[in-house]
Every structure is written in C-alpha cells, then in structure tokens.
Amino acid sequence: MSAQLLKLSALNAWYGESHVLHGVDAHVNQGDVVTLLGRNGAGRTTTLRSVLGLVGRRAGSVMINGCEAIGLAPHRIARLGVGYCPEERGIYSSLSTEENLMLPPLLGPGGMPVDEIYAMFPNLEKRRGSRGTHLSGGEQQMLALARILRSGAKLLLLDEISEGLAPVIMQALSRTIQKLKEKGYTIVMVEQNFRFAAPLADRFYIMERGRIVEGFAAAELQGRMAMLHEFLGV
C-alpha cells in the first residue's frame, strides 16, 4: 500500500468570520491522482488553499509527507514540495513565456529541467519569446503547470485546469497529467468537468457545504454514478 503523502484531519478554515471548511478528512497516497468534485461554493478551492495556508485561519491537521503543516507559513509549506496551480493561472503579462517559466524560485532538488518541460509542452518552446498576453488560454494553462514542475514540487494542487479550454487542449492536458503520474508526481485536482477528471483519478472525494460527503476509489466509480448524478448532476 502506498504511503500517504497528504492527510487532512478535521480541517476547518475561515475567511474572516466566514467558516468555510467544516472538519474535512481526506488522504492522498503518494503517486496518486485525487479529484475533488462538487458544485461551485462547496469548498474545493478552499481545501487546496488551506493545504498551503492561503486562508484567513485554519484548524485541524494538514500532514504533508509526515510533517505537520498547520502552523507553518505558506512559503515553508511550499518548501515541503507543494506546488499550486490556481484557477486564475497568474501569468505575468509583461514577461515572456520563458521569463514566466524561470521566475518562481526552486523549492528543492529534483525539479524538471527546462528542456524536458519543453519536450512535454512543445507549444511553450515555440512561444518562449512571446509575452504572456499573447498566449492562448490553453498555452497559459500549460505555462502555469510548467512553472510548478520546474520548482521541484512533487505534490501538485491543480485548480480547474480544464476550465474554458477547447477539447483538443483538454486532451493534451489529460495526456500530460497521465505522464506526470507515471513519473511519480502526486496530484490533487479540483475539477468541475467530470468527464475530464474521471479517466485520470485514482480516488474521488465529493464536497458539499465545506464537508467531504463521499469518498471512493476509481474502481467503485460505475457503482457510484447514481450518487454522482444526485450531487453533481453528472
């Protein structure tokens, strides 16, 4: 059985006075892809942000590779090998593709070399001198993912990476995530697009109103479709 790289226990989170997460319990085994499903406002993005401490306040336990991170500052959590790809992508419009790629600091050893990144994302190599504003939505998403691969992160938190992308780009991203899994990366995805997430995930968690209401392995997916339709309208 794989070791648990990430374990959330009784995780609560607040933005100001707003109590958003209510006792989230979940685990992610090393090398797995885990998808958080749920409607908008269910608490999925806040769960990712809570892992990194990017919320107003949190309580409970966030264990990352055996280290308790609940009391650590975000930059120290990142140095445990955690990379975050936010929904808004965060591409610097005035910088070139390659400048965007090289800007974030290295979190530790083992980052993906630039030539390997360009082999995985050939569009980025072709556009290495183009400014961020000149990249398509799909190219921006590829760049956002490429940046955290260069950093040395091994736990990747990906927030709605398929949103607004053409089907052909989603297929390319799906192949990329499969390759990353084969390389031993551990991935937690927030996804609204169930059809994009379903073939990739080893485990699913369904969130509603800041809680995990269901969790099941990919092997159980067919038997859970009625429940998924109830919660998600799949």
Q: Count up the helices.
A: 9
Supply the CATH superfamily name of the domain at 1-80 and 186-234: P-loop containing nucleotide triphosphate hydrolases
Structural class: alpha/beta
CATH topology category name of the domain at 1-80 and 186-234: Rossmann fold
CATH architecture designation of the domain at 1-80 and 186-234: 3-Layer(aba) Sandwich
**Biggest sheet strand line-up:** 6-7-8-3-9-10
Radius of gyration: 17 Å
Proportion of helical residues: 25-40%
Order of helices and strands: EEEHEEHEHHHHEHEHEEH
Proportion of β residues?
25-35%
Stretches where pLDDT is under 50 for at least 5 consecutive residues are none
How many beta-strand runs? 10
Shape: globular
**Sheet bearing the most strands, described?**
6 strands, mixed
What is the straight-line distance between the termini?
A: 31 Å
CATH class of the domain at 1-80 and 186-234: Alpha Beta
Keyword list:
234 residues; alpha/beta; Rossmann fold; four-stranded antiparallel β-sheet; six-stranded mixed β-sheet
